Amino acid sequence: xxxxxxxxxxxxxxxxxxxxTSILSLLRNVDxxxxxxxxxxNKKSFKKYLKIISSEKFLNKIxxxxxxxxxxxxxxxxxxxxxEATYYRLFIDKIIDDKEKFxxxxxxxxxxxxxxxxxxxxxxxYEGLQDxxxxxxxxxxxxxxxxxxxxxxxxxxxxDYCEWTENEVFExxxxxxxxxxxxxxYWDQDVLNYFxxxxxxxxxxxxxxxxxxxxNNDDYSINEEVVFLHYLxxxxxxxxxxxxxxxxxxxxxxFNGIFHKKYFLLPNKFDQDLDGFIKLxxxxxxxxxxxxxxxxxxxxxxxHHIYKKILR
Length: 312
Hints:
The chain has 312 residues and is an alpha/beta fold. 38% of the residues lie in helices and 16% in strands.
């Protein structure tokens, strides 16, 4: 059985480029071989990124699977910034073929970028789980104090895959999901927390450094030792409305370093994109017109909105 770390991602085509950015930022920072497993809603849509990732020197192997299970209910995803793919990790044992071949597993959200080498810190966290006979390593979410147990953010999870299968963790998670007795405000994260009920080992903050894109965080400095930078909530660094915030610049710089494209911007809601453009113009003025890569991206986004309105 392999002692390599296996990183697991779950996403759909709406997060293809974000996931590719996350995976490539990881592979450009590690100093030893790793495995990557992906559960996807439509794996064919990720084909062009798979070719890029497969050439990385620290990739041992990468496998991608379609989520092909049927008749499953995914609660509370209508009109949200997330999709059913957020629940896919509860079905890892049903999807991944070579699950018996790895132990050291790290689940990682696709809106996370890697800034430093995570290998030693992950291995230390994993050994801590073994020493204390705990099934999960995660970072406490101090903002969620309405629960009667310590509540963790599920953006980065460290666990022993074999122990999870032996202890029927996935099966019990799905039982909680199927009962749907709780109001899953935070989707699969709530499912995970209702199962573990505070029984997890705290991982270093650097392995899941959370940041929300707000004006209040513009002067917030990111520690140089941060490993995984996690953009929380529905305000993402690839939206025009958040481009003026300094916390978005880190993501844009990482994206540029990987793909050699200056901006990664995707359409959001029209009113939010328009508001973001107005704020950006107030800050930058006519310099926006002289910034050709940004100007082209803005034209593409608002052309998308116009096209959508015409089709209605």
